């Protein structure tokens, strides 16, 4: 399973300009799980001098995509939610851990936790994906 | 009220590097309302050749911040959710319309609708903000 | 369309013991819309002497089911969220207004607003439904 | 801490008519955690012959209230969401496990998992609570 997941995520990752702009690196991955890491740059800050909420959302959403598609079926997100708990600053190193909580029928539910370099939870994300009939061709 | 809202949003907008990177322009604003617009660039795409979910989230989250802070009290987001309904492509022009649905005690609830240049709804966002005791100094 | 929606909702409503226990009455309905009403009874209160959050959720969830199934395709809820803004008391008369915001591919998104007899918004609910291939037989 | 949590939950539970109607029993509890159990009765079913979505929501919402108030500060829910994954039938025995994921500043976030007697996850609930300045008097 592991190799198939890796190949699929390679395919998604290698052609993903926004993930590249974010500077996301892959730390760990398998079907149903993805760990991603990135460092917060100056252009990711908002008017309060802290990371824009869209940055942590984007990291979590990428982790959701990688974790859910790793099984081989194409998955699209149906609904996602995020709570931002701790302010994220320039040069913070963020790690997103996406884990599958449930797969049932056509839907998968994932929790993603984002921690900073002090291992504080800065954001919690929940994502529901729809598993299409279509498989990834790799 | 209008002028105060405008001054507060100026303050947030003028020092917001990520909003600048996104190329967000302000179309309309008042206390409780914000309309923003942006054009999707190549570096905002994901591995499927469509805009990363983080792009529409970021636009909606900025609209939430501008609409809710316009009253004069500092607001922070507590929980946000988004559903992506229609794929967004390069060069699409996205408009986010954030409107206050309820303000009660310390909390405000906003709905943000994002439409493309064909007036199709591409994403729906709901945000809950906490209104701090602290006022904006302008 | 209207008559078909009415027949489908009849079928759901007439065999729904919990909706009966809640004392829900149908005020208005068509494909994509449902307005329901109920009066809060003593056994619906929680330990604070106000209506349990499950009461307003149940009313909103019924309105979601009636509004979304009225088109003829069987719909099941995928994800729902609710914010409780104003305390609901015994004998309050609650009205839920469910409206379709978007139908796209296999998914529908609905907003449900619950108001009390003073027309105050007491809760806001968002529901995403999955539209099955299967049609209602009526 | 345990005894204080127990006393607070006693106070909430003993005067909660709806929790009584649901037949909820307390299995385990401490500050930040609550496990509740109930059996699905005929009057909790909807028009499809399965438990109304409001039943699992109500059980989860009670678990959230018990877990979050156990610390001694009065907590109110700000936003809750639930996904229903497996149909719940008459006589099913449901167990809700509420656990605190994060407490930061004035907000707490809890995940609640509901399983049936076969240990299948039937619903996943996420709740955000606001922690008031006010303490419980016990």
Write up what this structure looks like.
- 4 copies of one chain form a homotetramer.
- With 138 residues, the first copy, chain A, is of the alpha+beta class.
- Chain A has a single domain, classed as Hotdog Thioesterase (Thiol Ester Dehydrase, Chain A), CATH 3.10.129.10.
- Chain A has 3 helices and 6 strands.
- In chain A, strands 1-2-4-5-6-3 form a 6-stranded antiparallel sheet.
- Chain A is globular.
- The mean pLDDT of chain A is 94.
- Chains A and C meet through strand 3 of A and strand 3 of C.
- Strand 3 of chain C pairs antiparallel with strand 3 of chain D.
Q: Widest sheet of chain A: strand order?
A: 1-2-4-5-6-3
Number of contiguous helices of chain A = 3
Radius of gyration of chain A: 15 Å
Give the oligomer, counting copies of the same chain as homo and different chains as hetero.
Answer: homotetramer
Mean pLDDT of chain A: 94
Looking at the overall shape, the CATH architecture of chain A is Roll
Distance between the termini of chain A: 13 Å
Biggest chain contact: A-B, 39 and 39 residues
Structural class, from secondary structure content of chain A?
Answer: alpha+beta
